[in-house]
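Just wondering, can you check both lines?
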Amino acid sequence: MAKEKVLITVKTYPSISGKYDELVCTAGFREDGSWVRIYPVQFRKKAYTQQYSKYQWIEIDLVKNKSDFRKESFRPRTHDTEIRIIGEIKPDGDAWKDRREIVLKKVYTNLKTLISEAKNEEIGTSLAVFKPAEILKLEIKNTKREWDKDKLERLSQLNLFETKSEGKLEVLKKLPYKFSYKLKDETGTESSMMIEDWEIGQLYWNSLKRHKGYEKKACQDVRKKYIDDFAKTKDLYLFLGTTLVHHNTAPNPFVIIGVFYPKQITQTSLF
């Protein structure tokens, strides 16, 4: 197929695969506002000129991911497929008007409707923009602190990760906490959804470094950003995606794969 032009809005925190090593799920919008999921991407192994950021336009040769039935799922033609960065939508004073034009063409406010569309084979929605009626809290729970040892051992045997002294990548550290938003939709339905955005992981690690390894303070920083800033002061939207393994089985198959947080726009500021 022809090369796709995609506005990147989602980069999930890397996961470890015994087959492909360290993988990132990327998603974004075509110019018409339709979603596309790009997976797998060995992001940190890409040349610096191909390591895209959020809200950059990329051009990439994609093919349908035949191992993933979800309609929005594509993959690079090969792992060596070139990614060209061809533009960017700037934040324009934090109002994000130009970004809104692409991102907010279709917004869900009802979880039951969204989940129903995901379960419907003819519709099969697996990526969506969701506007919560209320964020109740940020849940922070302990999780395993190390990657799966068997997977890491297989990667080591294949020399897919080598030490910094050899000038190559070390495996990215696993987050020791799971961060989730507990929220309500427009009907008052409550749900708890895990946040898998790369951004929240980087916020945690940067805060941990600043607080000299004090995890409690690092978690407080994450809560301050995602509750006091995003939830209480910004015009918050959530990028949701289903997980492949739970798409057809979980009562709510969606997780939060990104957040969209422009400042509030008042009616007078539109003119």
